[in-house]
Sequence to fold (453 residues):
Amino acid sequence: MSVSNNRDSFGSKFGIIAAAAGSAVGLGNIWKFPYITGQNGGGAFLLIYLLFVFLLGIPVMISEFSIGRRGQRNVFGSFKAISPGTPWYFVGIMGVVAAFVILSFYSAVAGWTLEYIVKSVTIGFGNQSTQQLGDAFQNFLVHPIRPIIWQLVFMTITAYIVIGGIKNGIEKYSKFLMPLLVFFLLVLCVRSITLPNASKGLAFLFKPDFSKVTIKTVLFAMGQAFFSLSLGMGALITYASYFRKTDNLGRTALNVSLADTFIAVLAGVVIFPAVFAFNIEPTAGPSLVFITLPEIFSHIPMGNLFGLIFFILLAVAALTSTVSVLEVVVAYFSEELRINRLKATILASVSISVLGVLASLSFGPLSDIKLSGKTIFDMLDFLASNILLPLGGMLIVIFVGWYLNKSTLFDEVSNGGELKAGYFPIYRFIVRFIAPLAIAAIFIYSVFYGSLG
Ligand code: PFF
Fold:
């Protein structure tokens, strides 16, 4: 049975990097990274984060690429193809469940970016006090309909791209959207670092102050690296199943990780100088982007234009990520239920949207439904980010490090011996020993810490 011959695939190296970096670069970089960095002491957090990206993130990414390209199927099918007759396919099922859960709450936040795009061109941010901007955000969140409409619009755009397939959908749009994103980010960087007192913000981001570092900082950095690089749920396994046999997995992982890190740092360079220029606390948390930034836009010349650029940037970043998460479920449905891509996409997006609507409503009408103090949104986020992703990531490295033959793994990483892959011994050592232990640490800590919080 040679399904692989009829499978869609990426058409170019740049397309692969744009799509995989598109998955990695998302709300995690532009919304989450700056506020977590702000809350965890700035430069010291950044340094620890970088350490995890290189020590842990890249090896896990190479492992996901190896599974996907070897398996040539969706995340469930890939595990089944590589390890027939074993229960490893369960890791694939977990990946599909994680994708389902992530997309349900992620699409809610992605929808907020659309509200703010419209806001920048209609009423704008000018002449409003911080209080008013905060109230506006709050009123929007609790509204029973508006956030849901935007969420569904966002899901529809995501589904539209996914229906197009790999080459003519995901790759085509990523190749256009990712350069656009970098361009917008650079425009905003220039604006931000030319504000008065910008250097204070840069110092906050780049000057490590280790007195702020605790065990919590270290584990947060590890969790963030994981989420930001799209690891642990099979998004990159699914994408790699569309790679060609000649694509260099190690180099691709390095490029994607560098791009993701570079963009997270640039997002910090946009946000912190602006925050310090207006004497705002950098520790605002999740509202940093939706309240603090509009406040800044209300003060600078052409603020509405920069606001518009910023929220388009955020939407674009989110879109290439939601596309990759939806593709995990669509590939699974279409290959395992043997239905066509159109049907699979409709089935996946409609069912995810049902859960998504509940996540959105949990800020307003459903805010009273709580389990151990967590709303539906918080529960879904917790389940995905603190349980499914770390557990999935740990099982992936154990699978690659301990179950897969050394020669099979080398074959994949070196393209059948075509590439030298001199890093192989150290890579395999990390995957066998360091990564499982380190991820187990995040997992145990976050379950414990999360259950306290
Ligand atoms: N990496 C994305 C971000 O940083 O926003 C989020 C994400 C996408 C997580 C895909 C997990 C995933 F599989």
In short: The chain has a mean pLDDT of 92. Residues 23-24, 26-29, 102, 227-228, 230, 233, 235, 321, 324-325 surround 4-fluoro-L-phenylalanine (CB under 6 Å). DSSP finds 19 helices and no strands in the chain. The longest helix spans residues 303-336.
